[in-house]
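ok, trying the design again with the full structure, not the truncated one.
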């Protein structure tokens, strides 16, 4: 190996770890003015792929501190919340990590955390991976972690509502779809008899909480969300309703009375609910805490 200068030991170690086992490479040249440049291997027709074809992958199910040897790290938080800790930025200037969440347990967080408080991630003190396939790609500039890319699963996902006040004779199914810092949600309440004698509310899955800082009204039932609530009577009759902020974990369901007023939906209003009846709700753009 011919080296025109000196590289940090951590960078030489990374090159050694990442490079595949090859024989008769020929002469290697390292650009010491750009420590992150791929080594030039004279004598190979596709020298530029020597390092990029050798990417390390690992999966973690416990708290873990990333090292220079890591590249793509998957975190499975199905068993509980996890904290991936990044190395100090000054020790790995130019280093790129890709961190991906693999589980679907909304109640648990994967909180990517810098080594020191001043070492932010895309301007944030921490970066929480909250939903399915939540993924970040970050790079150290020697001072902070720059956010190069952030992606997540944008499809519909099954979930279990954390609050279900209609329990008797009621089967509740629930789905969510992420949209940046918000979610769209669907609920269906299918009845096999009379439900609980309570006003109907739509419960968010455990782990999702409404971000009231994104609302202009935070009082109970003072802000409605975009979307529709359709109430199906087996008679058949149809009613149209709305969903309003109830608390950080749920939305209240109201019926449009058609005269500029609304009334609460409960076991006997706008009708006496019974077998074969259902309430189908689709609500959009619910702001959620911890989404980035």
């Amino acid at each position: 190996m011919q080296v025109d200068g000196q590289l940090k030991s951590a960078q030489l170690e990374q090159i050694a770890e990442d490079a595949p086992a090859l024989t008769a490479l020929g002469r290697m040249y390292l650009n010491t003015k750009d420590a992150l440049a791929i080594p030039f291997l004279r004598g190979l027709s596709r020298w530029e792929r020597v390092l990029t074809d050798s990417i390390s992958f690992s999966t973690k199910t416990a708290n873990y501190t990333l090292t220079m040897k890591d590249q793509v790290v998957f975190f499975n938080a199905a068993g509980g919340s996890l904290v991936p800790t990044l190395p100090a930025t000054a020790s790995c200037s130019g280093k790129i990590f890709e961190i991906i969440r693999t589980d679907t347990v909304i109640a648990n967080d994967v909180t990517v955390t810098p080594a020191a408080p001043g070492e932010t991630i895309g301007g944030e003190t921490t970066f929480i991976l909250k939903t399915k396939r939540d993924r970040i790609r970050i790079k150290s500039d020697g001072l902070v972690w720059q956010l190069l890319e952030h992606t997540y699963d944008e499809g519909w996902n099954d979930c279990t509502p954390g609050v279900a006040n209609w329990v008797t004779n009621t089967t509740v199914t629930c789905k969510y779809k992420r949209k940046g810092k918000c979610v769209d949600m669907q609920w269906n309440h299918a009845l096999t008899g009379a439900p609980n004698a309570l006003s109907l509310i739509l419960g968010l899955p455990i782990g999702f909480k409404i971000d009231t800082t994104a609302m202009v009204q935070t009082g109970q039932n003072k802000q409605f969300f975009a979307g529709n609530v359709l109430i199906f009577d087996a008679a058949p009759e149809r009613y149209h309703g709305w969903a309003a902020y109830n608390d950080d974990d749920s939305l209240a369901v109201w019926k449009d009375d058609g005269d500029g007023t609304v009334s609460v939906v409960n076991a006997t209003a706008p009708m006496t609910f019974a077998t074969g009846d259902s309430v189908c709700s689709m609500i959009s753009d619910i702001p959620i805490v911890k989404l980035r």
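Keeping the full-length input from now on. The helical segments are 9-18.
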